[in-house]
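Lay summary. Proteins are chains of building blocks that fold into shapes, and those shapes determine what they do. In this project we predict the shape from the chain. Here is one chain we studied, written as its sequence of building blocks.
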Amino acid sequence: MLSEDFLAMTSWVRMNTYEGTHYLYLGDEHNVQEWLPYLSRRTPLVAHWGTEWTGEYLSQGALMREVKACVSQQSSQCVMNFLEKSGIKANLLITRREDKELQIDLSDLSKCVEVYENEEYVLFGITDQD
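And here is the predicted shape, written in a compact code that computers can read:
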């Protein structure tokens, strides 16, 4: 079941980011991964969403495992290394409120700016990846 906080977050993303925004969801909840692209009308950088039709299911699964490892480590450096290594450009990082160490770590990076929060989610804009 999707929470009110999830719906509020997706609404904020849809209303406050441009259509070309690419996000990286730093979590592994299946319902969130499935509904986030549709409700936010934004593009996930890593997700199984739709990959069963594009033939990218296995490669996306491998990328998702790398992201999950970064979240387990609560490491912003791991996240940034993943983005750099994979050549993926993210405009927005979506974290779960429960990942407090990761959020503190992201806040310490000059390129990450907290742009939204509610009881369940904290979102960071990425100002520069070069």
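What the prediction tells us: The helical segments are 4-16, 30-40, 51-54, 57-73, 76-86, 100-107.
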